[in-house]
Design brief:
With 160 residues, this protein is mainly alpha-helical. The chain has a domain at 8-101: Winged helix-like DNA-binding domain superfamily/Winged helix DNA-binding domain (Arc Repressor Mutant, subunit A, Orthogonal Bundle), CATH 1.10.10.10. Helices cover 40% and strands 6% of the residues.
Length: 160
Amino acid sequence: MAPPTEPFVSQWRRAIRESVELSVDGKVAAYVLSTYMRSDGTNARPGGDRLVRGTGRSLRSVRRGIAELKAAGLLLEVVHGAPGRSSEYRAQIPTDAKLVAPDTRTRAKSAGPDTRTRAHSARVEPERVPTAQRRVPSTTPTRAIYDTDACRMALQLVKN
């Protein structure tokens, strides 16, 4: 029995994730756009309002992301939408796409044949900083303002 092949949309999402050319806007727009595609990467017709709701970004950011995807050759606009109509997009993976090479990723290596490690256990956790140390001291002298106001009020009471 032949092993199951991965759907094209999954391959496209991996190419988006590993792309070094795309900004966050492009990657977020691509992911949300991929949820409207068929498994072969065709027939994606979400409107701008749906992409804005799905990404949580502005329409300008979504349009910028789609323009990045087109420029990188990862997205093809099959039908340009007229006013009030959505455009239709098709996913594609160009052969010259700039992706992160698999050997540059950090992966856990096993110490030997008997020892097994998982990739997530090899990650280094960031150092936890107590909340009091995280707060940046305010540059505004709030205590001095309160003290000055209290002095002014006391002087007014004394004068009256």
